[in-house]
Design goal:
The chain has helices at residues 40-44, 136-139, 142-153, 169-180, 192-201, 215-222, 237-245, 267-273, 285-297, 313-322; strands at 2-6, 14-18, 28-37, 63-71, 83-86, 119-123, 127-129, 161-165, 184-189, 205-208, 228-233, 247-255, 276-279, 304-309, 328-332. By secondary structure, it is an alpha/beta fold. The protein folds into 2 domains: 2-141 and 302-332, Quinone Oxidoreductase, Chain A, domain 1, CATH 3.90.180; 147-279, NAD(P)-binding Rossmann-like Domain (Rossmann fold). The longest helix is centred in the C-terminal third of the chain and has 13 residues, at 285-297. Bound molecules: NADP nicotinamide-adenine-dinucleotide phosphate.
Length: 339
Amino acid sequence: MRAFRLTAPHLDGLRRSDEPVPELAQNEVLVKMRAASLNYKDGFYLNGEEGIQLPRATIPLSDGAGEVVAVGPLVRRFAVGDRVVGNFVQDWIYGPIPAHAVDSSTTLGHGIDGVLAEFRTFHEEGLVRLPQNLTYEEAATLPCAAVTAWNAVRNVRAWETVLITGTGGVALFALQFASALGAKTIIISSSDEKLARAKHVGADHVVNYKNDPDWHLRARELTGGRGVEHVVDAVGPDTLERSIAATAREGTVHFVGLMNPKGALNPMLILGGTVNLRGVRVGSRKLFEEMNAFIERHDIHPVIGKRFAFEYSREAFEQQVRGAPFGKIVIDIAGDRHA
Ligand SMILES: NC(=O)c1ccc[n+]([C@@H]2O[C@H](COP(=O)([O-])OP(=O)(O)OC[C@H]3O[C@@H](n4cnc5c(N)ncnc54)[C@H](OP(=O)(O)O)[C@@H]3O)[C@@H](O)[C@H]2O)c1
């Protein structure tokens, strides 16, 4: 089968390989991968010393969807022909992330091989069914960015306001989910063009953070001085203090971003503002399934920004490193982009 492996933490380390189709264990499912998608972290892994070093020559990418083509004799959850997508942390079923998985040792494309290959075996517990309204390509965008966004906003109420930083993968899903939950949404971006597109996706208010670096004050203005009930901060230390300053008393900053892992935070902002600061890390299989039901119910379709054929995977990574377009970058593994 055709696959890619990341043999070293830079673009030239991404190598095409030809490998045997993996053998099926008794409780595993063999999936013919149809599509995969990229996230910020996949560019970060290429970042040499600044990035996270993957443990070995790993098949990259955590996010991929495909069709079940064989099942082991003990498999009960899936049958041949089912449309499935892998859960980011393979053995995180429900509740908080299990202690043994905190080090990413069971995360696809990190501690274990990912999905950028024609076939992959999964333990049957590591998969969920596609939302019925989505194509393989659309569903391939869900495991990291969408589940993280859902984890952040799932308890938002219709009368609340949600501020979202940037227009990246996590941010656009957070916008779509918060809008479908009925909340008022404010989104910030460096680009007026992306902001115009965010309005089409459902943003009620938009702020260009390059032109208006005091966007936290603008958020207060837009909420009658009260502040927003929720911020989805998908950036990190560069935005966190402003995110807290934009938040209403007893509101919550859902902290997702790790773009700049270093940085200091003035703790008085949290105390003075009586703001809750919540770390969000992707999500369990249960959250993934709950989100898929929500996606079906509201007929939500992920925003896809760029598509690449499998043989052009290197170009897909280059695009991610250059800066994500508006919408997810997807790789068509099986050459059937309309399936
Ligand atoms: N905690 C978790 O489990 C988890 C899961 C997924 C991702 N993440 C992290 O979340 C972050 C976003 O991931 P992603 O995949 O959504 O990234 P992405 O698709 O590459 O998008 C990044 C976006 O961040 C925005 N941005 C950059 N600097 C900004 C700033 N100073 N203020 C406001 N927005 C800014 C940009 O928006 P504009 O172009 O509109 O300016 C950019 O498009 C990354 O740090 C990633 O590692 C964490």
